[in-house]
């Protein structure tokens, strides 16, 4: 215990000496900072004495920059600056910024188009798998567009909705059934006469071919007839299977007609509630635009169906009268076929007119066939340049290129039914897209801040 006081005294003296050294270092560091001394040196440490600057490779100037300037001291937390002769290295840009703007825009649009194409492909596959149901519903929608104005007129006269729907639907279906029965009856009544005239026409064509400048011999004609007979005989199984397939098609047609009738009945009776229920499936943000586009799409579809029916009826009447006065057999059934094929724009008129010309050629000869061709072309020209612009108007006008592409695409996807519904679908889509574009622009203008000052419009009632 005798050495403890001495040890404590020495410890106190050492702590006092360390405190003085720390005060001196702090004062020295503050003085260097005020005088602009070297930055980044630890506080309290004396500045290193200037050492001889290393000579550069040229032997003229030190590496540190200006002659005699000391280099900063390299510590554990400081990276030494590169020498002055080192080349400047640019920082690497962001990879997204290195891609050209046009390529980025194309990529953004490309993957969105791929998503849309995939969605459309899946939708087309789904529709193809339930093609019968889809076509029956669309047919019911078209018939509803044709009959709905009658229901509305009866309701305005005070007839209850259910009774008005029943009267309109039953009347429409009875009229269409009578027309179909009349066509079948006319064909069956004139089938024997038509067969005899076809045989006579074939004989006349045979004699015309023998006397024509094409140098066709009777042996060649007989050989062609024999080849046709052999082909029919060897393909009996295919013809039988085609007949069985025809029976299946007839069953599908009857099923589709029944589905279309039920769809028409319920759409006529409860169409508004069905539309309101459909709107609930649309997101809330898009619901106002869709709610406004729906009535306009329905007006376009109604105008298209009614206008097409009127144009087809006029075509059928005038071409049928021409066939009747030219004494062509089956004039009435041919007129009905012309009326039905008129619902397929462009293509239907060509096929129905060609059918009438072929019947006239086989039964009445070349001159009558030429006269029928003149009548068909004249009526179609009047239809294309007068009737359609006047009756259909601009509301449902579709460019001819769009009509051709729509009819071809609809025919490839769903046959004749797809070709019939393709053009009204395009017309309705055109109306909906135009309205949604205008609605979005109006919403964007509404969201913009109102002008102030001299550009602001005066309020109503303000002087």
TrEMBL record:
Membrane-crossing segments per the record: 163-184, 247-269, 303-325, 331-351, 358-382, 402-428
Ranges of biased composition (kind: Low complexity): 34-44, 54-74
Top-rank taxon: Bacteria
Subcellular location field: Cell membrane
InterPro entries found in the cross-reference section: AI-2E-like
Major location (coarse): membrane
Membrane topology: Multi-pass membrane protein
Keyword annotations from UniProtKB, A to Z: Cell membrane, Membrane, Transmembrane, Transmembrane helix, Transport
Ranges of biased composition (kind: Basic and acidic residues): 22-31
Disordered: region residues: 22-80, 444-463
Protein family: Belongs to the autoinducer-2 exporter (AI-2E) (TC 2.A.86) family.
Protein name as catalogued: AI-2E family transporter
């Amino acid at each position: 215990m005798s050495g403890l006081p001495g040890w404590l005294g020495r410890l106190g003296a050492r702590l006092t000496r360390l405190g003085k050294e720390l005060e001196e270092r702090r004062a020295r560091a503050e003085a260097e900072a005020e005088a602009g001394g070297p930055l980044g040196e630890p506080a309290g440490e004396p500045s290193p004495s200037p050492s001889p600057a290393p000579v550069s490779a040229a032997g003229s100037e030190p590496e540190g920059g200006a002659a005699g300037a000391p280099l900063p001291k390299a510590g554990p937390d400081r990276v030494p600056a590169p020498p002055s002769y080192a080349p400047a290295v640019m920082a690497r840009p962001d990879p997204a910024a290195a891609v050209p703007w046009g390529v980025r825009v194309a990529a953004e649009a490309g993957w969105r188009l791929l998503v849309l194409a995939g969605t459309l492909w899946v939708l087309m596959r789904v529709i193809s798998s339930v093609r019968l149901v889809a076509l029956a519903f669309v047919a019911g929608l078209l018939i509803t567009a044709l009959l709905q104005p009658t229901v509305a007129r009866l309701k305005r006269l005070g007839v209850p909705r259910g009774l008005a729907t029943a009267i309109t639907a039953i009347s429409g279906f009875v009229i269409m059934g009578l027309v179909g029965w009349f066509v079948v009856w006319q064909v069956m009544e004139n089938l024997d006469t038509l067969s005899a005239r076809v045989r006579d026409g074939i004989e006349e064509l045979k004699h015309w071919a023998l006397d024509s400048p094409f140098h066709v011999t009777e042996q060649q004609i007989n050989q062609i007839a024999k080849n046709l007979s052999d082909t029919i005989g060897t393909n009996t199984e295919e013809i039988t299977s085609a007949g069985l397939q025809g029976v299946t098609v007839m069953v599908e047609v009857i099923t589709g007609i029944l589905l279309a009738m039920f769809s028409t009945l319920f759409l006529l009776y409860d169409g508004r509630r069905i539309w309101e229920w459909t709107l609930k499936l649309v997101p809330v943000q898009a619901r106002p635009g869709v709610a406004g586009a729906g009535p306009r799409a329905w007006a376009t579809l109604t105008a298209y169906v009614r206008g097409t029916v009127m144009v087809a009826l006029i075509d059928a009447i005038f071409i049928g009268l021409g066939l009747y006065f030219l004494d062509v057999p089956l004039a009435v059934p041919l007129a009905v076929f012309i009326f039905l094929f008129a619902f397929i724009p462009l293509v239907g008129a060509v096929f129905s007119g060609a059918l009438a010309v072929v019947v006239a050629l086989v039964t009445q000869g070349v001159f009558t066939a030429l006269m029928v061709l003149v009548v068909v072309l004249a009526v179609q020209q009047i239809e294309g340049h007068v009737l359609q612009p006047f009756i259909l108007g601009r509301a449902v006008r579709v460019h001819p290129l769009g009509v051709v592409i729509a009819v071809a695409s609809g025919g490839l996807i769903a046959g004749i039914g797809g070709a019939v519904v393709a053009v009204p679908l395009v017309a309705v889509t055109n109306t909906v897209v135009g309205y949604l574009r205008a609605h979005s622009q109006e919403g964007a203008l509404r969201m913009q801040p109102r002008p102030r000052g001299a550009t602001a419009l005066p309020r109503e009632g303000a002087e």
